[in-house]
Amino acid sequence: MARGRIRSKLRLSHLYTFGCLKPSTLEGEDPPHPLHGPGFSRTVFCNQPHMHKKKPLRYRSNYVSTTRYNLITFFPKSLYEQFHRAANLYFLVAAILSVFPLSPFNKWSMIAPLVFVVGLSMMKEALEDWRRFMQDVKINARKTCVHKTDGVFRSRKWKKVSVGDVVRVEKDEFFPADLLLLSSSYEDGICYVETMNLDGETNLKVKRSLEVTMTLDDEDSFKNFMGTIRCEDPNPSLYTFVGNLEYNRQKFPLDPSQILLRDSKLRNTAYVYGVVVFTGHDTKVMQNSTKSPSKRSRIERTMDYIIYTLLVLLILISCISSSGFAWETEFHMPKMWYLRPDAPEDLTNPISPVYAGVVHLITALLLYGYLIPISLYVSIEVVKVWQASFINQDLRMYDDESGVPAQARTSNLNEELGQVHIILSDKTGTLTCNQMDFLKCSIAGTSYGVRSSEVELAAAKQMAVDLEEHGEISSATTPQCQTKVYGTWDSSRTHEIEVQSGGDNTRAPIKGFGFEDDRLMNGNWLRESQPNDILQFFRVLAICHTAIPELDEESGKYTYEAESPDEASFLAAAREFGFEFCKRTQSSVFIRERFSSSGQIVEREYKVLNLLDFTSKRKRMSVVVRDEEGQLLLLCKGADSIIFERLAKNGKTYLGPTTKHLTEYGEAGLRTLALAYRKLDEEEYSAWNSEFQKAKTSIGSDRDGLLETGADMIEKDLILIGATAVEDKLQKGVPQCIDKLAQAGLKLWVLTGDKMETAINIGFACSLLRQGMRQICITSINQDGGSQDSKRAVKENILNQLTKAVQMVKLEKDPHAAFALIIDGKTLTYTLEDDMKYQFLALAVDCASVICCRVSPKQKALAVMASDFSIAQFRFLERLLVVHGHWCYKRIAQMICYFFYKNIAFGLTLFYFEAFTGFSGQSVYNDYYLLLFNVVLTSLPVIALGVFEQDVSSEICLQFPALYQQGTKNLFFDWSRILGWMCNGVYSSLVIFFLNIGIIYSQAFRAGGQTADMDAVGTTMFTCIIWAVNVQIALTMSHFTWIQHVLIWGSIAFWYLFVALYGMMPSSLSGNVYRILDEILAPAPIYWMATLLVTVTAVIPYVTHIAYQRFLNPMDHHIIQEIKYYKRDVEDARLWTRERTKAREKTKIGFTARVDAKIRHLRSKLSKKQSNLSHCSTQDAMSPRSL
């Protein structure tokens, strides 16, 4: 009675012929499996979990973990990750060397930054892994009912469940481990299982317990239950299971139909009992999972190469420095009397210049180490954490229904969001929401249903805009309203585009039923020209299914729990048409039929004699029933190609118009099925049923083949009555999101566990496929046995298909032609092997879309627990990539380039000064200046760049999705841009050093005639560096808030504040910079003039570059920025629309491509019609009567 629903207890075994039904025990048992050899050593003692705590059984616990580290491995693994980075490794060596006297700096100036950088990075890794751990804790803490003793069940956490435990799982609960199904709430031991977390299948699976355990259906029955399971060892195969159950001194064979896998969910069944076979990481779902790898982005890997380049530069100038020092030692040192050449030290002995040069090399390597930005990694870590927090807190990616926000589970790959070329997406729960609406139907050659599909609505809107631009309809008829198209598209109605405001439809929405057409509603179908065919159509919908009715006491209506959402929508449609399926017994279905608007209801019973279930090979479903008049009927529904080839000669009356309607429905993005029936006579049925029952009760590998042959014998000579068209209800915004992603230049590959035809239908529904697109289906042939010859034959067949497909794509000359690649998981395994993976990749890249069906979880590797980013709805992917991805890529790319620029500009001045002073190894800057440069004075502005920079707003990113291509083309982090920034740094270093030396060196620095000492020169140069690099970053930014202003200009102000305060300290602490600002530099006008001149000169090349680029070679975002700045988008809406159209990437998938194809098709038909009219007019003009 939960949720006001009523369900009767049923026996359903007679309904499931192909998948479930096994021979009756009276007719013979399957022999037990011969289990021996490696891979079949597992023994499970049912209801005796204590037996598995002893050796040699001692199986794994049910605790699962998806973390990367634990308490023992965190420090070694994390340290390895940190020093795997080239810069960190260099600074580790430098920190060790700084302990020795050869270091030109204080040792703590090298050690402290390294500890800070590495420690902060390790803290971030620990925080992210802690989040994974908490997710594991949440899952392990789920509870289930476990048998304790004497028939008593108690709640227990999942992690405490053991092998051998008997558990009770309630409806809509997940299975805590891999279980052997013992019994269920149904007498026949049937239960329904949802496995979409495992294989992506939308249809419910039917599982059936062994008949010998069906009676274990209450708690007391487990008091004395004991048995032994001997089965295969843990393995990742989801679709196989081999084992035996030893119970009551007998052996019973087990197969996958009795196994309930962890992470699948119990549906449509009140409860089941099962015994635990595999736990924790031994379960099949965990066997399919992969460890969380340590991931690094492409930009970070490129950054390593840049650091290697700088290391080479560092070694080069260090060698130059050591050679210069050796030269000075040998030739100039004897002349330097103040160095006491008569009593030289080892490092200044003219007799040993080579030794002096080699020792000086170590000093030089430490001195020029500021070419390598030690704070780069930690700054990137900080920026990425902020970026991840912005993703997590973006309200536009928050799902109100589920209350789930977007979540960046790791921040290591933020910039990768902006460089995605191909999206691999699961289907179930990602693209679809498992809901379908009955929208249209074709009955007796007449199409019914005036409500338009999403594809038709989009085409109508685009046509209205297009016709308005050509002046064919006035702008007054196209206000900002909802476009509604009646019927389906055809050439005679090209101009009948009705645009009207929404809101006239007052009918409450009905789940699964979106049909609108008064001709069939409220009994009006009785006034149609073929009421008998319509009646038969409705009865096929109401009878040909395997669903179970449930009465909702609140509404008084029946709802249906079916294996697929298609069936549920058919039954909802039949109910609304007046044919309500209300009851199912062991052998009958009951339909409440209402024939008129008066509401008079007649309940009819139809005895179900046989049910021929749907399989991926059959692509159809049939049911044989006897009505109340005793007439035998075969009712059939299935794929049109399958049904049409089974029609009788007199059953093709409506074939032509039905085929036309099916084509129109397909163009509208609807999923279609054809409906047919056949009247049977008693003799034919009796003869067939006898043979079919023999096939059902047969034992052996050919059983399924015999059943299919038997079905083919009866499913023939059908009479076509019509077709259905349902709209697969995708998640909100999925088609629009796919369209925007396609316009952004991304390709979408869908991975699904569904059957091929289901996957194709989903492709049409979400506009990955469209009418006219050529489908390339790559499948593997079935080969018996696993011999090498069989595998070789399969691979040759696949390779031949790939070769032909590649040639077909290359030979295609139509610019509008589009190809879709459809491949199943088994074939995919072969194509990813080394000898054919490149051919497969070439074909896949050339195709507009790729759909992989029947894919296993290991091939999909899509578990949320192991994902880097998670979003509640597929439509949020548009904002995640097009907005956050675009921003993150540009921010990180510009940030890294700027980092190298400022460190080159700063580090090379140390080299110039050392060369200027005879390669003395002396630093021109105070140690505290060096310590503050990367950590404080220039780090905050660059962090602001990485966190807050926006070349365009989020709204513009969504309006111009082609901007995303800047990331996929790597326009902001290619080597030309990197080298450009490096050259800019070299130029700035030359300007800063030589202009300061030229200004200060040869003239009085103060009013009293005093010249500047080394500290005054060094402080002046350092001031120029601080100004130049901060002005440079201000010019780099496109978007300013008060935060950027505070950090940029505040960094400059902090420099002056620091110099003033540090100089005010006692001379024992401040040393040579005692009161250097207020007494030496500030009073000297040359100090301020040098700062201004050097800063302006240093940024001139960049200003020139951006001026040239914006005026003569602008990028897309430059044009948009200019339009927005001058408000041209407000003044001229057509200009804005035109720019958006021009900026769109040409695509062959998505709504836009589909609508474009529709418009090309309509224009072609219109052009032909006009040509024919013109031709007829010409003939009329030339006729004798006209003359």
TrEMBL record:
The chain crosses the membrane at residues 86-102, 108-127, 305-327, 354-378, 899-916, 928-948, 978-1004, 1016-1035, 1047-1065, 1085-1108. The active site is at D426. It comes from Brassica napus (Rape). It catalyses: ATP + H2O + phospholipidSide 1 = ADP + phosphate + phospholipidSide 2. Residues 1169-1187 have a biased composition (Polar residues). The keyword Methyltransferase does not apply. One of its GO terms (cellular component) is plasma membrane. Residues 44-111 form the P-type ATPase N-terminal domain. GO terms for biological process: phospholipid translocation. Residues 1166-1187 are annotated as: Disordered. Its EC number is 7.6.2.1. ATP binds at D426, K427, T428, E567, F614, K637, R671, T752, G753, D754, R854, K860. The lineage of its organism: Eukaryota, Viridiplantae, Streptophyta, Embryophyta, Tracheophyta. It is a multi-pass membrane protein. SUPFAM superfamilies: Calcium ATPase, transduction domain A, Calcium ATPase, transmembrane domain M, HAD-like, Metal cation-transporting ATPase, ATP-binding domain N. The gene is BnaC02g46240D. Its main location: membrane. Mg(2+) binds at D426, T428. Belongs to the cation transport ATPase (P-type) (TC 3.A.3) family. Type IV subfamily. This is Phospholipid-transporting ATPase. One of its GO terms (molecular function) is ATP binding. Its cofactor is Mg(2+). Residues 864-1114 form the P-type ATPase C-terminal domain. It is found in: Membrane. It holds the Pfam family PhoLip_ATPase_C.
